[in-house]
Sequence to fold (584 residues):
Amino acid sequence: MSQTFAEKMLARKAGLSHTVPCQIVEITPDVALSHDNTAPIYGIFQRMGGEQVFDPVMHAIFIDHAAPAPTTKHAENHRIIREFVDEQGIENFFDVGRGICHQVLVEEGLALPGEVVLGSDSHTPHAGVMGAFGAGIGRSEMASIWAVGSLWLRVPESMKITVSSQLDPGVTAKDLALKVIGDLGADGALYMSVEWHGEAIQSLDLSQRATLPNMMAEMGAKNSFIPPDEKVIAFLDGRAKRPFELVYPDPGAHYAQSYSYDAAAIEPMIARPHTVDNVLPLSEVVGTRVQQAFLGTCTNGRLEDLAAAAEVLAGHKIAPGTRLLVIPASSQVYLEALKAGYIETFLEAGAVVESPGCGPCMGNHMGVPAVGEVSISTANRNFRGRMGTKESDIYLASPAVVAATAVVGSITHPKDL
Amino acid sequence: MERIIRGRVWKYGDNVNTDVIFPGKYTYTVSDPKEMPQYALEDLDPKFAGEMQPGDIIVGGTNWGCGSSREQAVVCLSEANLGAIIAKSFARIYYRNCLNNALPAIVSPEAVDAIENGETIDVDLSVGEIRCAAGTFSFPPLPAAVMEIFEAGGLIGYTRRKLGADA
Fold:
């Protein structure tokens, strides 16, 4: 029986020969990812009667969402997490400064092909860049996994997106993701497993590829998968924390929906306030005044993203009245950007370079906008109030567009700089 | 669990996201469930938190609860004893969070179109019916595996049982 990636993965994990959409299975994940919410999850775990976690090896814990702590309350939260980690003997713990959970999970060789990552974070589908099944869950569900080691999942229907040819220079996976989300809508893949196929996807570097499963959360997807190829295998060589097995969908598998895109026809795109599917070609939005530009996040805070922005910024200064915040997605990205000279370029241009983590993405700290201000960001969400105040507009675009906008002070196509 | 829920309807649109249900800036500073209801729907309908009564019912459009996985966007409502949420469709993590907190999450596009904001309606969980001024609409029961969690009062009670913590 031909199966999609999700059907095959969940069958393997449930010890079944096959599964069908809507079937409910109980599985034990290979990775249970939690971040700053580890402290409240610990509280729920205790209310459930939990004492020892089911398997400390399964855990990957990160402090990234409000890190370093902006307030005493946040610091207390971090303290509880460190105590929990010590008490339970959890080794995969990444403290303040290491970076954003989804990026660090990949860097640490903990997101592996053929494995299931469940995370108490909606962008857990990110792990699909490595050929893993990554899905977001709630806090109580995570506490329950800690306690009993398993969780029920509904086998999702699958969507296949095939992207032919190649993206033009200056057009990125971010633009492709925005184009697809704009076309299919914020609930276009609700409850579904989204698979990316085609030569345009295989020709992308891993950094750009990661943007696609990361952003499928914005289309309602449960998980998203990119078939692991030689680039993934080379990346994991010497890095993977465990042996892994490559899992691919079968030829002839049934997809509830299939779409085809021609990469060469994609142009730079932008999401306007206040929903991610409110997408237009960049050319139709140029000229909008912007007070804050933000380069970072799990969506676009990797080395290649910083490189694209540095290339635009070289020899330029940030416009008066506009701020550019740069937050590398991880300490490894930061170090490599430093060695490559990108950090110097950012500082010379007048940008603010901050420590790795989520930064102001969900309005916690490190540069939230004022009432009435307009932001442009490389993040994945622009919901009203997302960055702290509901009286603020957020546009989403690729790193090069964010950089060009910071230089001009209004939304700008990099080619017009 | 209450089998018949009667309450006033608070009706909203499509794609209502978790940031407007429970703003991200509170996610790591408000951790006591009892403190959460005061922020419910803060950036969507500032009147809601002050005026909603236990048993009231939220009616939403498609993709209710999209965005972040934050469970507080459900707990801020379940803790206030909201009766149910009826929507055309739910974002998947939000839907799971509802069931895991024993908050009835009902999918009924026809009922959503028919129900008027502010009217008082009945939701009968035992027979799977929504009764409003425009008529009666039925909805399918939960899958058995999930119903067990619901009957335990949510995932906390369910896991306690599984661990034998109440024995």
In short: The mean pLDDT of chain B is 93. DSSP finds seven helices and seven strands in chain B. Residues 92-100 of chain B form the longest helix (9 residues). The interface with chain A takes residues 15, 17, 19-20, 23-25, 27-29, 31, 42-43, 62-63, 66-71, 74, 89, 91-93, 96-97, 100-101, 143, 145-146, 154-156, 158-160, 162-166 of chain B (CB under 8 Å).
